[in-house]
């Protein structure tokens, strides 16, 4: 989703993304052409960016090219300041200096368009590698668009081409050949899939990788294998800096320096381990990202684990980083942290519950009287949701087990609960605990919601109350039984996102009373027409910020709506924002900073929000930045406030410059007074008070005009 640029001299990383210049996401290919000075960036959707001296120029021609079939760009060959793109529909010649497509060559055999996997030139001949064979043409032929000017050299399956020291090599899936005239001379058979071939100053390299065998093989100018590197690597590409230093793109660890072509040196930037993001959860100042996950309630075999973001730093937890216990579980779906002992709990789709201790030891819970296997699948222990209650008991959903709701109590003992309703599947996922300590359990796949009131006596089943909430009046009044998310807001109301909009339970504590608590299907007017709240939208996630505003994530982007849902405050899509896609999985608001984290099907992004959770008092009042630089064009934040505090900014003589109300625990100022002008340079004061005046605080900051 972003490009990381590493300065080898300064040992520093910088980033290019859709936020600061790139035009798209999901980069497929990056190559630099020394002759023209341009760097080529190709995306999975065939969009193209050209980067020259820090400026980014978008070329959407290929992306917008209206053809039937794939437009995937497989590789690029540079010659005479032109870029020859090997694509699934032919050869595209790009002129970076004019930033235009010069021409396109389409090769056909038996009326079928050939997929061009790679290109090269040797002895004045163009070579095109295809699964049907290698085709050649005179590189000086002025009409290479005419397939009649190309000839089939050999019918070997060719995926890669490499010219090295005057010799031309090609590789199929697992075998390396040298082209001698019009014949293929066998050189080497790899034990795994050949991923990439690269030329160095004296030697050339072959990257090989599959589930079992991973290696970089090194060949001299005569095509003889002279060495290899296979210790703890998973190579996808390699670049030689000099004869004793190569860098590899590692599928597990990112960018790896190999000194003397053997000695590993992992060069890591501060970033998330993987773009695969399934779920988000918070504990204190930390944001936890679950790698995933499930797809339509089938495991995905994702081994990326989970990641923690705290104080601007990412920490990754998975088998590749040596996290205790992560070698035995896949598909992490949710994270919870026990505040009493800092144990981290990871829910796995199929692997059970992993408990990680601060000393990196672990306990794995599965196949116990409480954590049970999926009905019909004795080896599947599916934990789909986690939450801690106010008494530090850990509640977890045991999807498709006989007893769907399980609790690990603070004292280390366990209890389990089943729901006496006839359903086709014993589905269970997200758990939300309301202000009455009742557990709301999302039952996906068209079942609805279960609610448990254990009467604050977990071990006494005799006083339990259980309800099932469904679509329809008298049954709970959900707009749909396909429930995708549940969230509690600052007023204690329960918001439910479904396949057909949002339901609001305004009285969740009364769900078991004689009058019950039916969901409100709120009617709103966002345009010329009134309708039910997000009717006909699949609401995948709901998040609540410090001002009790609601962030709504759907398959059509993100909405920020007011606390009462009457007003749309903002709307984000991939077309008007850096969102990589409109398909939103999860949204979570950082309670202290107000930063809004948005997990999509194509990675994680964040937006700097204005609202934070309110503090107990104003003692932590902070103005940022302070001093305010003269060239600063952003907003000035006053944070660490009690909820919805009154905030006034005055000059040194006491004249009011600006007044506002905090959004939760933070207020923002655009740096201008009521006339729209920047005030003069000097010292300014901030006065903060809550509604009844019992919590007051003042501070000061320097403003530079």
Explain this structure:
- It is a single chain.
- Among the domains are: 71-266, Methylamine Dehydrogenase, Chain H (7 Propeller), CATH 2.130.10.10; 278-418, YVTN repeat-like/Quinoprotein amine dehydrogenase (Methylamine Dehydrogenase, Chain H, 7 Propeller); 622-703, Immunoglobulin-like, CATH 2.60.40.4070.
- The protein is built from 1 helix and 63 strands.
- The strands form 17 sheets. Strands 33, 34, 35, 36, 37, 38, 39 and 40 form an 8-stranded antiparallel sheet that branches.
- It starts with a strand and ends with a strand.
- The model has no long low-confidence stretch (mean pLDDT 92).
- Helix content is 1%, strand content 48%.
- It is mostly beta strands and 705 residues long.
Number of strands: 63
Helix residue percentage = under 10%
Give the overall average pLDDT. 92
Question: What percent of residues are in strands?
Answer: over 45%
What is the CATH superfamily of the domain at 71-266? YVTN repeat-like/Quinoprotein amine dehydrogenase
CATH architecture of the domain at 71-266: 7 Propeller
Q: What global shape is seen?
A: globular
CATH class of the domain at 71-266: Mainly Beta
Q: What fold name stands as the CATH topology of the domain at 71-266?
A: Methylamine Dehydrogenase, Chain H
Count of alpha/pi helices = 1
Q: How far apart, in Å, are the first and last alpha carbons?
A: 37 Å
Which segments are poorly predicted (pLDDT under 50) over 5 or more consecutive residues?
none
Quickly give the structural class: mainly beta
Q: Give me the Rg, rounded.
A: 30 Å
